[in-house]
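call fold(seq) -> tokens
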Amino acid sequence: MEGRQAEDLGTGAQGTPVNLRGENFNFAPVSVQFGDRTAEIDGAPTATLIKAKVPTGFTAQSRVKIKITTAGGAVVNTSDFIAIPPPIFRTFGPGRGAQGTPVNLRGENFNLAPISVQFSDRTAEIEGEPTATLIKAKVPTGFTARVKIKITTAGAAVVSTSDFIVTAP
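ret:
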């Protein structure tokens, strides 16, 4: 089998569709692996295109090779693909506060830019540079309510399971 990459694949979050370009990709059976994880193929491969989704299960940002296997053989891309894991939201504290109150958000994979934090539908100011396990965000202005906190990174978005209580100033 002859295969070649026609584009720099770069990076992708888990579940993101990736177009793999080359030649002779339509000889069944066809499989795609990102590192040691098997990808879901979206639709039927053509002779020059396979649409595959970045597999789940990456717990840290991972550099992997993509391997395409058909009845004619296998090919591995020459450059690394960077699989971006989703954020994991564990806890926050304090559990209540007025506008401007700093809140520590704790979890994993929080340092994969771009990063944003929302309290309900309002964007929070992030203090300093987020680390892999901590984001410091200020409660936004203009409301009092029980709200969920949403963290969005390059890997995905995740919402708190508990409510934060926004109190009056």
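The chain has two domains: 11-84, 88-166.
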